[in-house]
User: What shape does this take?
Amino acid sequence: MRNLVTFIASMILAAFALACGDSKSTSPSPVNMAITIQGTQGAMSFFPATAQVRVGAIVEWRNMDTIVHDLDEDYGKFETGDISPGTTSRTLRMDVAGTFPYHCSLHPGMVGTIVVTP
Assistant: This one.
């Protein structure tokens, strides 16, 4: 039941972010995709595990866990630095089409992918 509640809360938060953007964003553009870090609350995972956005989209990660996470693109194309519990990463603009796998360097089993389409 707790995982279901966490999932529903994550979906509501992601929908709100997509609709409204994030007033704390470091970018003047609204956030197009908010990826939730579910960490120990959701089997050490990112949600959605595979996110699809268009070139130029603004992406951020929201840490809904109780511990610090970060993420690094597997081939060094981007990274967020530490994301404390309850906070949001800096925003990243996805300027190049492609498939970009990433992981939490603190918890290497946590993996996700961003697919950027033209």
User: Anything to note?
Assistant: The CA atoms of residues 6 and 95 lie 31 Å apart.
